[in-house]
Amino acid sequence: MKNLKKLLYSRKAAPYVFVLPFILSFTVFWIYPLFSTVKMSFQSILPGEIRWVRFDNYNKLLKDSVFHLAIKNSFQYMLLTLVLLIPFPMLFASVMDSNLVKLKGLYKALLYLPALTSVVVAGTIFRLMFSELEGSQMNQLLSWFKIEPIKWLKLRSTSYFALLTIACWRWTGVNMLYFLSGLKNIDKGLYEAAEIDGAGGRQKFMYVTLPLLKPTTIYVLTISIYAGLAMFLESFMLWNGNASPNNIGLTIVGYLYKRGIEKNQLGYASAVGLVLLGIALTINIIQLIMNGTFRKEEKA
Amino acid sequence: MKERLIRLILCFIMSTAILAGCGSDKTALTDSAETNHTDESAEESGEAEPEAITTVGPEDGTHLEMWTFVELHSNFYAEMLNTWNQKNPDKQLNITFTTYPYADMHNKLMMANQTGSGAPDICDIEIGQFPNFMQGQVQFYPLNEVIDPYRTDIVPARIEVYSKDGKNYGAPTHVGATVMYYNTKILEQYGIDYTKIVTWNDYAEAGKKLKEASGGKVFMTSVDTGGTDWLWLAMAEYGEDYTNKEGAPDIELNSIKQMLTMQQSWLEEGIAMISPGGQVDMEEGFANIGDGNIASFPKAMWFMSRFLNYLPEMKDTWAIAPCPVFEEGQPRSVGIGGTGTVVSVQSSNTELAAEFLAFAKLSYEGNEKIWEILGFDTCNTTIWTDETITKDTGNKYLSYFVTNPFDTLNEIKNEIGIIKVGRMNPAIAEQFNLTILNNCFENGAEIESELAAAQDALEIEY
Questions:
Q1: Which secondary structure element, helix H or strand E, spans residue A105, and what is its range?
Q2: Among residues B49, B87, B356, B409, which is most buried (max CB within 10 A)?
Q3: What is the mean pLDDT of chain A?
């Protein structure tokens, strides 16, 4: 008893006791699966039959054109979401932060609501909206402009239009909230000073808002890169399973799911997962270095 | 307070918006179908099917779990369970049936097999998914012993399909003989006699006539971009198979080329359309049939139940006939689809479960019920000639169609081809459904090069 008390009051031990729950869950749910995945990526795994296959899975990945297509799709989706989901939410946040908008709470809530909606429900509704039947909402919309019905989810361009519509609908509000909180941290005095120096609205945005929002932007960029590369459910729901024509909607995680769960090849799927991890890590490290995130800490 | 009010209003707007979205979509579907689909029936199809759980049998009986992916199947098993309990007072069973959506159920079972826990005692597996479960050490209980008493009555190929190394792991449900469904009302209206159609040339001629007479409004059929039924039919007619003896893929077959070329020409000539939704067994497909856009299509016998469920207003419209062939004398049908029911080794009552399963699916009374409830062409073919069944005017399936399905079945009985289902089948089907058929029909790609490219990809996979 005394010893326990001593331990709890000890300056050396107490911090470890407090972080223990985190360390434990981190080890059990992150570190262990990660190593296990690395191990599995060198194995062929079937019920009751686990074999070491060395680099077979990776060699197969190099030749697997469907996997290459999945990488291309995920990249394209990621880049397009970056183009749409960083500038626009930033702009909306600035507008929302200014005095131009009334009923701010209403708009914030309105834009945030999609993030609370289940992707499964939303994806199903979007699938029906983008259906190839004449009666689908998107085709009815086209018919007002006297345009023939389109097979939305069978063509590459229109499919990405549908995927990006879901992405924008869902994430604009979330990213906007990040930027809003970033804007709140900018000292209003800086704007006054800029005004005294004769800066206009655009100049204030370019020379005060943008640079000071950088930490937020980097954060949003980092999570968007990962979210874009790891997109799965949207495509899975839009095509009602992992079955888009010509694999136009197949993403890296979709391929991982297909191999691991649908085709019973967990070893191969592990290799796919590790490639995704490698790609996301590389891009983000390059991006963070270029943005000077690591340098800053040295200065401090 | 004000904020709260706004929040409330917002929630209201949001929920009505979502509901309005659903509502208008449903009407969109119904409008185009010009049918009286209820919302319920739209919900029932495929993936949208909700989970349903029922428990049947006395509480003190041995408890078993069973998973299916079609609710109607659970109803059938429940009925057979009641019969079993009446006949076996010493082996009372209490079974909980759970119906999951198709992909969900197979994925769950796969995970349960991988991890060694969580599998149900008995489970339905769709034939296309079955090879995935035959890899590694099979996690199912061999049914050879319980099948033996019924073996002579059952079409051997249907048991073979669910076997590995001489062990039978799945109890079959039906033969799945493919037939041609003809819309007699449309064909009569435009003066076409479907009984005269013997070859695909006759079929195309009828299509041309139909196109001219209807002013291009009605198509002879719809070709699939998301299903391989037409190709299976072609392979069976030529006696080919897209996997060889060792199970290696070989898709550059004469039969497949013939079929694809023919279908491409139909599309060019306006005889056929592309199936909305990829194939006819989809919500869009039912709407297309109901609309009267197509006058015929080939599908297995199990499609009869789709007519009753989704197109009840088309009673007395459809006839069932043998499929056309490329050259006279070729076999006119092929077995497509199926469900193999398995007993998991994780079950603590494997023997009892297997015994019940064999009784439910392979006994004569079981087969009677399979026909009566599910409308399937049973694996016990003596049913096909039992006049108390085949002439039963009270049967909902017999009264729906213009022709008697059993007449056609008995006519083609010895012509039902078999395509092997092995490890490579899921991958081959995927190549066709996602890539080849789309490219050939939607984009008019060259058939030979598409097949060659897919063959290369499949060989890497093999």
A1: helix A104-116
A2: B356
A3: 88
Look at residue A297 and tell me whether its pLDDT is greater than 80.
Answer: no
Cβ atoms of residues A293 and A217 within 8 Å: no
Answer whether A40's CB lies under 8 Å from A47's CB: no
- Give pLDDT < 70 ranges for chain B: 1-51
What does the buried/exposed string (b/e) look like for A196-215 if buried means 16 or more CB atoms within 10 Å of the residue's CB? eeebeeeebbeebbeeebee
Please tell me the distance from the alpha carbon of residue A270 to that of residue B262, in angstroms, as a whole number: 42
Instruction: Give the distance, in angstroms, between the CA of residue B390 and the centroid of all CA atoms in the same chain.
Output: 22
> Whose CA is closest to B105, among B274, B299, B330, B342?
B342
pLDDT of residue B5: 54
CA A112 to chain centre: 16
pLDDT above 80: residue A83:
yes
Query: Following CA atoms A102, A103, A105, A109 in sequence, which dihedral angle do they give, to the nearest 10 degrees?
Result: -110
In the block, residue with structure tokens 């937020």: A216
The ipTM assigned to this model is: 0.72
Closest Cα to residue B97, out of B447, B386, B314, B356?
A: B356
Residue type, B207: G
Q: How far does the CA of residue A39 sit from the closest CA of chain B (Å)?
A: 16
Query: Which of B48, B137, B276 minimises the CB distance to A47?
Result: B137
Estimate to the nearest angstrom the gap between the alpha carbon of A238 and the chain centroid.
17
CA-to-CA separations, B175 to A55, B82, B254, B352, in angstroms, rounded: 43, 25, 26, 26
**CATH among 3.30.390.10, 3.40.50.150, 1.10.357.10, 1.10.3720.10 for A60-291:** 1.10.3720.10
Asked if residue B416 lies in contact with residue B333, where contact means CB atoms within 8 angstroms, the answer is yes
Q: A240-259 in b/e burial notation, b at 16+ Cβ within 10 A?
A: bbbbbbbbbbbbbbbbbbbb
Contact B74, B99 (CB under 8 A): yes
Query: In this structure, which amino acid lies at residue A151?
Result: K
- Prediction pTM value: 0.80
Is there a contact between A47 and B24 if contact means CB atoms under 8 Å apart?
no
Return the residue matching tokens 């890296």: A252
Greater pLDDT, A2 or B264: B264
- The average pLDDT across A10-14 equals 81
pLDDT in tens, A34-55: 999 999 999 998 877 888 998 9
Question: Cα–Cα distance between A89 and A82 in angstroms, integer?
Answer: 11
Three-state DSSP class for residue A200: coil
Check CB contact under 8 Å for B434 and A129: no
pLDDT reported for residue A111: 86
> Quick check: helix, strand or coil at residue B70?
coil
Interface of A with B (CB under 8 A): 45-49, 60, 63-66, 103, 105-106, 109-110, 113, 117, 121, 124-125, 128-129, 131-137, 140, 151, 154, 240-241, 243-247, 261-264, 266
DSSP state of B135: S
Query: Which residues are within 8 A (CB) of B301 and not within 5 positions of it... i.e. 6 or more apart?
Result: B174, B175, B176, B177, B178, B179, B320, B375, B376, B377, B405, B409
Q: Which of A83, A85, A108, A111 minimizes the C-alpha distance to A97?
A: A108
User: How many C-beta atoms surround the C-beta of residue A103 within 10 A?
Assistant: 10
Pairing mode, if any, of strands B52-56 and A43-46?
Answer: unpaired
What are the extents of the domains in chain A? 1-53, 60-291
* pLDDT the model gives residue B47: 40
Residue B52 vs residues B88, B101, B176, B370: alpha-carbon distances, Å: 27, 10, 26, 20
Is residue A256's pLDDT more than 80?
yes
Q: Is B211 helix (H, G, I), strand (E, B) or coil?
A: helix
Q: What pLDDT score does A1 carry?
A: 66
**Alpha helices per DSSP H over A197-265:** 201-204, 210-212, 214-229, 233-238, 252-257
Q: Which two tokens mark A287?
A: 């991006």
> For chain B, how many residues are written?
462
Q: Give residue-wise pLDDT tens across range A13-31.
A: 888 888 999 999 999 999 9
Q: Can you say whether residue B302 is alpha, beta or left, with left for phi > 0 and alpha for psi between -120 and 50 degrees?
A: alpha
